[in-house]
Amino acid sequence: MFNNTTIVGLIAAFCTTLSFLPQALQTIKTKDTKGISLSMYSLFTFGTLLWFTFGIMSTNYPIMIANGITLILALIILTYKIKYK
């Protein structure tokens, strides 16, 4: 069903997205964003959007899945950073 390259990509996507999850959930839970740079997080979110777009354009499912999930979480955190200054 999946070739070895896709399997490696899915495992990598799972690991990187999973590693981002605890910090994202903590930030969402506490709404504490004072330790986050607005410019850095804006650039990170934009980069994630571009990676997600790249995944769609190249039909690369590991990139689409990992960056789609990360983009949603990053947008929530970025919104909190702007809203709860």
Short synopsis of the structure:
By secondary structure, the chain is mainly α. It has 3 helices and no strands.
For the record, what CATH class applies? Mainly Alpha
CATH-defined topology: Monooxygenase
Figure out the total of helices: 3
Structural class of the secondary elements?
mainly alpha
Corresponding CATH architecture: Up-down Bundle
| Quantity of strands, as a count | 0
- Overall geometry comes to elongated
Chain-averaged pLDDT: 93
Could you spell the SSE succession in H and E letters? HHH
As for the number of domains, it is 1
Rg, Å, rounded? 14 Å
Strand content range:
under 5%
Distance between the termini: 47 Å
Unreliable segments of 5+ consecutive residues: none
Q: State the major sheet.
A: none
Q: Percent helix among the residues?
A: over 70%
Describe the overall structure.
By secondary structure, the protein is mainly alpha-helical. It has a single domain, classed as Monooxygenase (Up-down Bundle), CATH 1.20.1280. The chain is 82% helix and 0% strand. The longest helix is centred in the first third of the chain and has 27 residues, at 4-30. The radius of gyration is 14 Å and the shape is elongated. The protein starts with a helix and ends with a helix. The mean pLDDT is 93.
Topology readout:
Blueprint: H1 4-30, H2 38-57, H3 61-83
Helix pairs in contact: 1-3, 2-3
Task: Based on the model shown, name its key terms.
Monooxygenase, single chain, mainly alpha, 85 residues, 82% helix, 3 helices
